[in-house]
Amino acid sequence: MPKDAHFRRNIVSEEASMLAARLVRRLKKEGWSLSVAESCTGGLLASTFTDISGASEWFSQGWVTYSNESKISQLGVSPKKLDSRGAVSHEVALSMAQGAQSASGSGVSISITGIAGPTGGNEKKPVGTVYVGVCIGEAYLVRKGEFGGADRASNKHSFAIFAMQKAIEAWDTHFAKIEAVRLAAEAESVDGENIELDLNQALLSINPDMDTWAATEDWSDEKIANTLEEQDKATLGDDAEWSEEQ
Question: What is residue 88's predicted lDDT score, i.e. its pLDDT?
Answer without folding.
Answer: 98
